[in-house]
Amino acid sequence: MVRRSSHVYRVALAAALAIGLLGATALSPAAAQPAVLDPGLQVTTVVAGLSAPTAFAFIGANDMFVAEKNSGIVRRVTGGVVAGPVLDLAVNGAGQRGLLGMALSPTFASDGNVFIYWTTSSTGADTTTTLSVPLLGNRVDRFHWNGSTLTFDANVLQLRALQNDPPQTPGAANNGGALRFGADGKLYVSVGDVGRRGWMQNLAGGPAGFGPDDAFGGPAPDSAHLTGVVLRVNPDGTAPADNAFFAAGSAIGGEVGQNIQKVYAYGFRNGFGMAIDPLSGALWNVDNGDDAFDEINKIGAGSNGDWIQFMGPSSRFADFKAIETASANGLGQDRYPASSIAPDGVEALSRTFMLPGASHLDPELSWLHAIAPSALGFMDGDGLGAAYAGAMFVGAATPALDDGYLLRLRLDAARNHLDLSADPRLADRVADNLGKFNASESETLRFGTGFGVVTDIQTGPDGLLYVASLSRGAIYVISPASDTPVPAPATAGLLGLGLVALRALRRR
Q1: How far apart are CA 359 and CA 300, in angstroms?
Q2: Nearest Cα to 178, choosing from 115, 109, 100?
Q3: DSSP string covering 54-120
Q4: Degrees (nearest 5) of the Cα angle 12, 17, 22?
Q5: 348, 407, 453, 474: most buried by Cβ count inside 10 Å?
Q6: 374: exposed, middle or buried (C-beta count within 10 Å: 0-12, 13-18, 19+)?
Q7: How many helices (H) and strands (E) does the chain have?
Q8: Domains of the chain, with CATH numbers?
Q9: Termini Cα distance of the chain
Q10: Predicted confidence pLDDT, tens digits, the chain (508 residues)
Q11: Cα 101 vs. chain centroid, distance in angstroms?
Q12: Distance between CA 377 and CA 468 in Å, rounded?
């Protein structure tokens, strides 16, 4: 049985990243069915009773793999029926670790390859013990589907997982984990900062007064410090020669240079939401701030998201500094406290670490106070009607967990920017909400409610929108209200919903 911890629950909430990486996993018996605000659409449960689903991938019509965070299990769900585990990995599920991301090879039909981002346990068994993880415990591995099971094929990447920076309490946050293949056939990997404070976090010399990034080296992105980035790699993990920093990495050489060659963009804190626009091919992500300025970004080759110097638009630096210096959390890392923030925005920009070819990235939309945006996905086609074709959807979690809402965002005709013209308050591309987890000034973007902690959003083969909820242990489908409802949901392990609810109550 997966071990769950109320401590993990509280820590993840306090970290303002209730983005689907919490320890509370069961479907709440008191939770209302999720709903959308458009009366012409409906929400139906595809499968329930899952243990903290973080990602799913369709392998056919009504046929998908579902990854579970803390159990390390990938399940196959066909027609709403759970066929059983097809893979079981020994994961460290502490905090925001675990089985985090999954993507099919673009040629899955012929090669059967599945890519998985996960945190390995150092004990050989599932654990939530923070320090029971190798230094490079975050992995991207390739597995092969033989029709009945997934078997290990090759390691693609090994990334930093251990967070043990005395005198600070050991942590397990900001692991990222989203995987997506682009139309270019390259694998994009979202890696959180994992508590590091070096080049990729815009600190050229590491955290002031501490010398190296930590006991294992840095601040340059050797293999233990390649964090806070979006990587773009070939399916075997090598760097494409057309990457933005390929030449810069060649000039630097060695392990650091080879790692820099894999970087598509850097300067990010953490985000579990990343998706490719199906119409333009552009890459979008969410980046979760500490207390200030959660972001939605359109990422280009060579983008620098500017963390840790600031979050949000550069024009609002004073607000970023005021909120973070007033917070007890203080940027979340004692080795670089909020007191180290630059005196003004001009100085903050000058402090950023700019690789040759890098460019500053201002968000397309941000929130003054953190709202914990989670998964990001696009509606590919008009399966929900012409009004939703090409729309972006973003999940947002709240401390209540049984809440959790979906935002719907439009893009302009050229697909270059978010179209926020329907709400004059967002003309500055900042929602000046009233406090942390408060959704004021973005009410006009709200599309659905009651989805809990959303961890994946994708268009299915049937052209409908599918949503995974970690906190509710379920996958939902959104469809036109006139559609024939999908079959009644099965539950993982063929348990009834009553048993799932009973177990949830016993864990409280």
Answers
A1: 9
A2: 100
A3: EEEEEEETTEEEEEETTT-EEEEEETTEEEEEEEE--BB-STT-SEEEEEE-TTHHHH-EEEEEEEB
A4: 45
A5: 453
A6: buried
A7: 7, 30
A8: 6-507 (2.120.10.30)
A9: 16
A10: 222 233 333 333 333 333 333 443 444 444 568 999 999 999 999 999 999 999 999 999 999 999 999 999 999 999 999 988 999 999 999 999 999 999 999 999 999 999 999 999 999 999 999 999 999 999 999 999 999 999 999 999 999 999 999 889 999 999 999 999 999 999 999 999 999 999 999 999 998 766 689 999 999 999 999 999 999 999 999 999 999 999 999 999 999 999 999 999 999 999 889 999 999 999 999 999 999 999 999 999 999 999 999 999 999 999 999 999 999 888 988 889 999 999 999 999 999 999 999 999 999 999 999 999 999 999 999 999 999 999 999 998 876 655 899 999 999 999 999 999 999 999 999 999 999 988 899 999 999 999 999 999 999 999 999 999 999 999 999 999 986 554 444 444 433 323 222 223 222 2
A11: 8
A12: 11
pTM for this model (two decimals): 0.91
Task: Extract the tokens encoding 223.
Answer: 């293999």
Q: Which residue has the tokens 């793999």?
A: 65
Neighbours of 359 (CB within 10 A): 12
Q: Are 402 and 471 in contact (CB under 8 A)?
A: yes
Nearest by Cα to 203 from 195, 213, 193: 213
